[in-house]
Amino acid sequence: MKNSPILFIIFAAIFSVSVVQSCRHMPKSAQGSGVAGHYRMYCAGCHGDNLEKFAEKQWMEASGTAAVERSIKYGIPNAGMPAFEKTFSDDETRALAVYVKNGIPADRTQLKPAVTAEGILQSEEYNLVIDTVVTGLEVPWGMAFLPGGDLLISERSGTLHRLSQGVLSAPIEGLPPIMATGQGGLMDIALHPDYDENGWIYLSYSALDTTSEERRGATGVMRARLSGNKLIDQEILFVGTPPTNRGQHWGCKLAFDGKGHLYFGVGERGQHFDFPQKLDNTNGKIHRIYDDGRIPADNPFVNTQGAITSIYSYGHRNPQGTAIHPVTGEIWETEHGPKGGDEINLILPGRNYGWPEVSYGINYDGTILTPDTIRKGIEPPVMQWTPSIAPCGMTFVTGDRFKKWENNMLVGSLRFDYVERVVLDGQKVVHLEKIAQGIGRVRNVVMSPDGLVYIGLEEPGMIVRLVPIE
Q1: First and final CA of the chain: distance in angstroms?
Q2: Among this protein's residues, is 249 annotated catalytic?
Q3: Which of 11-15, 67-71, 120-124, 337-341 has the highest mean pLDDT?
Q4: pTM to 2 decimals?
Q5: Do 151 and 110 belong to one domain?
């Protein structure tokens, strides 16, 4: 493609509000339609949100836009660029050519190669481009999109950053004491559903017990507001009990249900015989609280003597995916099994999900943990993976960019380096597809406000996004 004389407007991609302010040469009123919308839909996947992915050519310096218009209208077949003669009117083609000509970076050193056909991935429903959002991270755990286009990124090592127009901020100040040990550290981020009005940002983390001489901790949830590069108005909403010195199985994905409730899972902290089947501790449980930390009066164990009142369900090993179905409002969860027996669960109030009394997995040394995979009175998984995929992060597909995947579940695989697309029919899994195999250890999967799939990777630490080509 470097030898092509002109544009390669081949692929479709939508504007990413989370990384850059695309269409910066257009008024905001035009950014959702017209020429800017045409560029987003048909060009940005190859040529970038900032019109930066073009090989430097003579047409950039020539007067007029005739050459650009010809390439858009008739394509460049030997380079793989289709014709858009039937897509755009002459006026639309001319407007798009002007938009591109005026929008490319004046500093030509900022130009990058356009995406080529060799960079396309095929899935059952879409051709995809993997677009790099940011590199140079360690273990990016959480992602949350701020109004206006910036992206908050949590690093498990205990730092929080803001990505603004491609630039990663210095660590944001104001975090609580964090026990960044083993699998613990700073974990998920979520914005309050009414963030525009109240500014609340929610964080899950490994809360360091500052009252103990021994280094120990428990899963915590905090909310705060962002002012500049500092968190203010911090409120601790939840800290698990008891704290332990273990470094594993902290959980903890955050999910709002739109009804004022916040759901999150806490792992059993590597002590499966001590915690998950008992209600006097927070470990190995799914919890439900109000957005200000209060306990809902209809939580299932509010009136159970000695029980932790935030508990919504119990018998969990290490839940690292929690998401609300966008249509039904159901609470879905993924959790790590031992050697085999990773699970997808539909979370119901007061139910026992069995760990460690029931499991499809075995101990890491190959010995039998339990002979039972099902048992009366225990909620079975909707689906289980053996061998384990190490499910981490999950989301439901929303928006208009992946309509063929609408309401499908996406689950990251830490072990096998791909994203699993899970198709549901009601409460049953009816189809699975592995997406972006070999992409790297998937730590998290989220949907952006503009309907693209963002993926947090470790080894190396980076964030990428999936862009559909139509």
Answers
A1: 20
A2: yes
A3: 337-341
A4: 0.81
A5: no
